[in-house]
Amino acid sequence: MTNLSDPKLAVPGSAEHRLLLQLDPERLPRHIAVIMDGNGRWARQRRLPRVAGHRAGLRSVRETVEIAARLGIEILTLFAFSRENWKRPRTEVGTLMGLLREFLKKELNEMVGNDIRLSVIGRLDDLEPGVRRDVESAVEATASNGGMVLCIALSYGGRTEIVDACKSLMRSGIDPEELNPERFAEHLYTAGQPEPDLLIRTSGEMRISNFLLWQIAYAEIWVTDTLWPDFRRGQLFQALLEFQQRERRYGGLAQAKKRDRAAAARG
Prior knowledge:
This protein is an alpha/beta fold and 267 residues long. The protein contains 9 helices and 6 strands.
């Protein structure tokens, strides 16, 4: 069970600590997915170049990864770079790829030391050879780790993932009558992972931006006006607290689920 008294989760007596103590450690989500949005807006508000916003966003990545791992979250998926992001100016794309390589090199020892396993989803063939080598090396270096999975979505698009899954199924020669949601999911980039329980989006935008379209069918969605470079443990705790206050019905009725639980308890 998660130890909420870990002083590295929050400073005792702080506002973040008060939020932390309201959490039920037995009802934390297994899988959290995050759309990290607002780097450019953060920089513009400060009259800084966009690269300053992206670099500031790395601090939020580090803190979110550390806190999620300490909470015992099984999987943290971060939307780092979409297929649509290739349309941005070449200089900005180059900067983003440089920051990715910097992050991997600086944080690799931390990931290994904290038993974090790196996973990457998306069209990795789109990446430049040097970037892809760094990504694959980091994935290989953490492959034997058994703690939290840090899943980074790179050159990722939800529609592309579904199309790729369809192509894979067609190549497999599957009988259409044997196809069901479970078999389909085996051909997604995320095959073998539990679906996200909680989707967090920063910057206040009320859209999912082509992210994990299949997997978030029943995810709880939490949107904050906080821009990604300002996102810290306090906002993560707020998202988790609201997640625990919601009743997940999966299309059913709350009372029916309660009756089922009661019947199961009676044997």
